[in-house]
Amino acid sequence: MNYNPACDIIFGPAYKGIPIVTAMVVALYQHYNFNKSYCFNRKEIKTYGEKGKLIGSPLTGNVVIVDDVITSGTAIQESAKIIKQHNAKLSAVILSLDRQEKGKTNLSAVQEIKKKLKCHVFSIITLNDLIKYLSENSNMSKYLTMMKDHINEYGFID
């Protein structure tokens, strides 16, 4: 898929999205001279110092969320709500790993996010990719067994 989502700001949900978004904007600038603003949220509102729930640039325009994984999609949905409250538009979600887990319906968690939030979801790597890598490396067989057990219990591999 060749899709370049509109992006004025990159958002990292607390807590795991915070180091991802900060590393991402630094890498984009250092390696590609691509300057993007970022924002992340706190779980608790801070009443001193840099007060409030959001840190970084104001949420405006088109926003791309970056996070590690989606389990049930709660963090992404909470982030989308924050973005909407600031009159910004969710443009896409980028995940480090799509675990290809079952959602709450007959769809995967990622498919549910796409449908509910009407945005593109991209993954750097999927569980299928990881399984393929493990199966091609004989010294990784114990991890492959663990992955297959995980798929049997939680998986939604299409």
Automatic annotation (TrEMBL):
SUPFAM superfamilies linked: PRTase-like (SSF53271)
A Pfam family that the UniProt record links to this protein: Pribosyltran
Signal peptide residue numbers: none
Enzyme class: transferase
One Gene Ontology molecular-function label: orotate phosphoribosyltransferase activity
Keywords: Glycosyltransferase, Magnesium, Pyrimidine biosynthesis, Transferase
Keyword S-adenosyl-L-methionine: no
Pathway info: Pyrimidine metabolism; UMP biosynthesis via de novo pathway; UMP from orotate: step 1/2
Domain of life: Bacteria
NCBIfam families: pyrE (TIGR00336)
Homology family: Belongs to the purine/pyrimidine phosphoribosyltransferase family. PyrE subfamily.
The protein's name in its UniProt record: Orotate phosphoribosyltransferase
Functional note: Catalyzes the transfer of a ribosyl phosphate group from 5-phosphoribose 1-diphosphate to orotate, leading to the formation of orotidine monophosphate (OMP).
Chain residues that bind 5-phospho-alpha-D-ribose 1-diphosphate: Y15, K16, R42, K43, K46, D67, D68, V69, I70, T71, S72, G73, T74, A75
Cofactor(s) the protein needs: Mg(2+)
Every Phosphoribosyltransferase domain range: 7-106
Annotated orotate binding sites: T71, R99
Quaternary structure annotation from Swiss-Prot or TrEMBL: Homodimer.
GO cellular component: a single term: cytoplasm
GO annotation terms (biological process): 'de novo' pyrimidine nucleobase biosynthetic process; 'de novo' UMP biosynthetic process; pyrimidine ribonucleoside biosynthetic process
The enzyme's E.C. designation: 2.4.2.10
Cited InterPro entries: OPRT, Or_phspho_trans_dom, PRTase-like, PRTase_dom
Catalytic reaction equation(s): orotidine 5'-phosphate + diphosphate = orotate + 5-phospho-alpha-D-ribose 1-diphosphate
